[in-house]
Predict the structure.
Amino acid sequence: MKWLFRAFLVLMLLALGLVGVGYQYGQTLLLPAKPEDTGKVLFEIKSGMLGHEVARALAEKGLIKDELAFRLLLRFHPQGKDVRVGFFELSPGDNAFEIFEKLQHAKDLSRHATFPEGLVIPQVAAIAKKANLIKDESRFREMASREGKSFGELFPESLEGYLLPDTYEFPYQCDEKVVLKRFTDEFKNRVVPLWEKRKAKSPLKTLREVVILASLVEREAQVPRERPVIAGVYVNRLRIGMMLQCDATIQYALGKQKAVLLYSDLELDSPYNSYKNYGLPPGPIANPGMSSLEAAMSPTPSKYLYYVRDDVKNDGSHRFGRTDEEHNANRVRYQR
């Protein structure tokens, strides 16, 4: 009988030891890794991760105090298998049980950014960087300027003009290619169907011509109702073989904005100088919004060949003229 008593005693000691170990680990799970730290840490559980990998990743990010204790929690807790794949916002100030609870409720995290009308590629890159969509502005500019064709046959090498302005939602983790694909997909989904409906009646032959003209309209028009009228002015000039003489093309060729252009600026040797070259410039000079694209597809029919800014109203509107005489009279009367 002595052996039975000894076996019982050993089992009791083992049980007490296990209880002690369990109690110790239980207490560890109640202790935050950094009690005073209330900041948020982005944590991702990827598909296929095992329990020990999750515990190790949490420990490496400083979110839990004891990796083994958390592994045991995942292994033996009834809801240990309910941990979800996805993104989580966790805090080192939470204890392991609180973190365990949060791991059962993944968040669909995303990022948002607004890109106004009339920007050029470097400005789009700067906004994307500020919104944490990309890490490398130069890489974004390079891809947008030289790798446009990789996003579909519709696009030229440079995506200038095809980065449709809007407020976009992006995946929380994205890169330059993801951002550019979001832009080009939006262009294909919104602009291309509209062009297919309107191209039969449009004075322009191709969608590329539309995008180029729309970029001029975007940079020249400040009052929305004037967009199709200004588009019509440029179409009239194209029809009679008149130079477009668009100040915005000079600004683009200069690579900077100037409040007032000098006569010397108009002599700039550039294919984008519409004071020295006939027809549309070789590419868009900005990324136009839908209103300017619609105006370029369906310009307002008129006999106007000129327009000048109305400094009397000073509201961004213009005065339009059909002849040199009307144009000169408008300049004398409305420009200051």
